[in-house]
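User: Hello, can you help with two protein structures?

Assistant: Certainly.
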Amino acid sequence: MNLTIPVQRREPRSGPADPQATAWRRLNGLQRMMVRWELFQPLNAAHVVELAGGISAERLIAGISTAVFRHLAGPLEISSSGNHLRFVDWKTTECPTLTVECRPSLLQGLSAVHAILGQQLNIPFPEGGHWPIRFHLVTSADQRSFLVVTYRHAVADSRSISALLRTLFRSARSEPDPTDLLDLAPDLHQILPDFQRWTYPLRVARQLWKEFVHGAVSWRAHDRHPTTGLVVTGGGEDNLPTALLKETARRYQATVQELFVAALLDAFAELLPQRSNRLRFGIYTPVDLRAETVPPVPEAFGQILGGYTLRLRRPRSASFAQLVKTVTEESAVVKQQQDYRLYEQHLRFTSHIWDRLPEAANRLAGPLIAPVAALASNVNLGQFLSEEIACGQILGYTRFTGTGIMTSMMAGLTTLGDAFNLTMTTRDDLYSPEEMHTFRRHLQQRLLGQ
């Protein structure tokens, strides 16, 4: 059953002839490459919220309508060049409908959600004007309700989707609607101080060369299983204690993010013990640049991200404490020099090269030049959704991200109140279910200090 969401059309800010309402906006480097990677495999992500009882379908639809109206001026369209984005002009284009698909399931708990995610993470969003979000309301066999929000990752990051959900839940409990309307985030060159200093091209060239050299000797997951190559999710319901996670990080004198990266490196070395001494494992981690934007861009759709990749070995003779220390030291250098900002320019340069190569070369060369074993995404929603937790609207929150052709695994750590969840997505031709189970168990043990 589908429930149609009545999305109100925004009035132009400067009158009926406002040309900025549907103007093309430049995509940043990360977005441009994500659009190009989508040519081979969808780059979707999903947030899953377990709902408390008492939210009727009518209230849910009203909340979604309010949230979409506030956060998006309309459906989106990406240019044929893959370099620009705009809102669709509702006057000249038939607006696509936005619906909530309600699905009862015979499976229990999050198993019901994984069945939906196995479809949604592999279904691309359409070309032309489209809503970059899809909604599913899933009722499991044990009468638990989950709202699944699947989104096109090239035009939204985790923070913007969490903000949309926060607006949804506050509207559902009849809080006053925010008076301000949000827009697409500006290009990073416009909102980051000193982003185009004259030294940046030299630093970008130096870092790119370093990335290629280290990438040449980094481990790459190979297609070892004769399956479909589709994105798959795995794992049960964690709800592991946040206090124990923080205590483990304090014990190693590291942040939770640094502990997470080190645990991933350790888990990969455990997965490939026969060669791990000689291999570098590239772990990419995103950095939210909102704190550095002027003026702040807290909730807008876009990719307000930088990032960096650590390519480290895991010597068998070294302890896990030494590995955490190495990750902490390497991360500190990157953050002190603000090199994570350059990731956007790396990908802007890469997009120019991509457009000049044939499709077969991009498919082969992309994963080979700078292979990434995993992406580590750590998000703490405890404070951001504190009111929703306090009033009992949200019982759980998990995030899943498609891998694309560049990354063999996406690992997400999501903290909500007293508990955190660990999610992993990969392609079914890269790892077996048994390998993923072993990897996940080892990762949990490291995070909990076991």
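That covers the first. Now for the second protein you mentioned:
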Amino acid sequence: MSYLVNEILLRLAKALAALVLAVVLWIVLVVVAGTAPSVELALLCWLSGAAFILLVESSPI
């Protein structure tokens, strides 16, 4: 049972890390680059953060 709880917590931590990366990317794009804030931009930032987490997780190093 504890393995299941650990797996759930790990997956939630990955989603939270992707959310943190997405917020940072969204702020950079809106404030620095001057992009118009939108829901589509927020979702694309979250997907980019999730893709980065997957790339780092599966790197051969």
